[in-house]
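Human: We require from you a protein record containing the residue sequence and its fold in token form, and nothing else.

Assistant:
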Amino acid sequence: MKNKKSAFSIIESVVVIAILALWIIWVFWFFSRSRDFLDWVSAKIEAIEIAREWIEAVENIRNTNWLRFPWNKKFCWNVLNYNSSCILDNDQNTNAEKIKEGANYIVNNVEWVWMLEEKDWSWNFSNPEYRERFIVWKDNNWKYCQKLTSDCKKIPLNYTRKIQIKESDMQEMSVKVVVEWQDQSSSKPRKVEIDNLLKNYKK
């Protein structure tokens, strides 16, 4: 009888230890997954903020063109980097370079003015040269920037950002901002895309 009781005690102990071990493993797995999820949520919120800033920047460029060239809004609203030669543009003549349909840009803040810079983005996020070209940094005021200047801190963030002008005509311009980043919970890069349709008139 004593041998049977001791055998049952050993079996019971093994079962209890196994249950405790499985519970501990589950707790660690749960907290690990929770941490990954919170990291992903935090990164996505920042990515949306980064993307929205560039949507607002392109909208600001449109508005600034309106203010600088009110006498020729038809041909100056989407001019590239506030080129004043657009003033002389008409239906038969185009002097100023426009923000191009199908072109890809980053935005730089030059002396507190948003400027577009065209970039080739034929590579993907896994290419180091691509990431270097489109990486997001923090400037001296802890604002996002993409051009290494004396005002831009050399603190790289784990994001790339790019602007694509999908369609553009005399009255409308379709803008898409893509922000990508890599995290530990996924082998593929994460992505946030924001689209905006800019028009050459106020609602």
Q: What stands out?
A: The radius of gyration is 27 Å. DSSP finds three helices and seven strands in the chain. The longest strand covers residues 152-168.
